[in-house]
């Protein structure tokens, strides 16, 4: 790491801290020649391989823009979309891969989107899971209903055991 003040080719790390979301490391460095201190921020690169074969950096903004279309007319705020994009990025980074297919990014969006808004989830899933007929929509809706019922039963069971 070159010193930004005197261009000396070496520096010493004085302090390291991770960012709040854990996606970057902030390092305080000191130049052994001029003794001035400076800060660097290190992030792990995450690339998305598109269908065409082109590789580009992962972008939360692209996730937000893609999901925003599915959320059109739904009670979903920009803050909700930002949180969703953060969850998606954290999930992808936890996979430990440097490169990921665009299709996998779309599939990773489905879980957090289902929690956020079921109608937006169905809209988005219809594209990413290539729904071809009404039966595909019906099957997805039936799965959502079944999961909702199981969740309600589980919550009722917890409430019953908490009362005893």
TrEMBL record:
Any Pfam family matching the protein: Zn_ribbon_NrdR
Keywords: ATP-binding, DNA-binding, Metal-binding, Nucleotide-binding, Repressor, Transcription, Transcription regulation, Zinc, Zinc-finger
Co-factor(s): Zn(2+)
Cofactor note: Binds 1 zinc ion.
Coiled coil: none
Classification via InterPro entries: ATP-cone_dom (IPR005144), NrdR-like_N (IPR055173), RNR_NrdR-like (IPR003796)
Keyword Transferase: no
Residue ranges constituting the ATP-cone domain according to the UniProt record: 46-136
Keyword S-adenosyl-L-methionine appears in the UniProt entry: no
Renumbered zinc finger spans (unnamed): 3-34
Function: Negatively regulates transcription of bacterial ribonucleotide reductase nrd genes and operons by binding to NrdR-boxes.
Family membership noted in the UniProt record: Belongs to the NrdR family.
The name this protein goes by in its record: Transcriptional repressor NrdR
């Amino acid at each position: 790491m070159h010193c930004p003040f005197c261009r000396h080719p070496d520096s010493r790390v004085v302090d390291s801290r991770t960012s709040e979301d854990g996606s970057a490391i902030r390092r305080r460095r000191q130049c052994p020649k001029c003794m001035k201190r400076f800060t660097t921020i290190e992030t792990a690169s995450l690339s998305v391989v598109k269908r065409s074969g082109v590789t580009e950096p992962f972008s939360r903004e692209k996730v937000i823009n893609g999901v925003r279309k599915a959320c059109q007319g739904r009670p979903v705020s920009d803050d909700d979309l930002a949180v969703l994009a953060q969850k998606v990025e954290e999930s992808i980074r936890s996979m430990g891969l440097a490169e990921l297919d665009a299709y996998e990014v779309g599939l990773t969006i489905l879980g957090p989107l289902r929690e956020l808004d079921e109608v937006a989830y169905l809209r988005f899933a219809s594209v990413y899971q290539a729904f071809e007929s009404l039966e595909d929509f019906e099957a997805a809706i039936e799965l959502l209903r079944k999961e909702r019922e199981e969740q309600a039963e589980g919550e009722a069971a917890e409430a019953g055991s908490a009362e005893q």
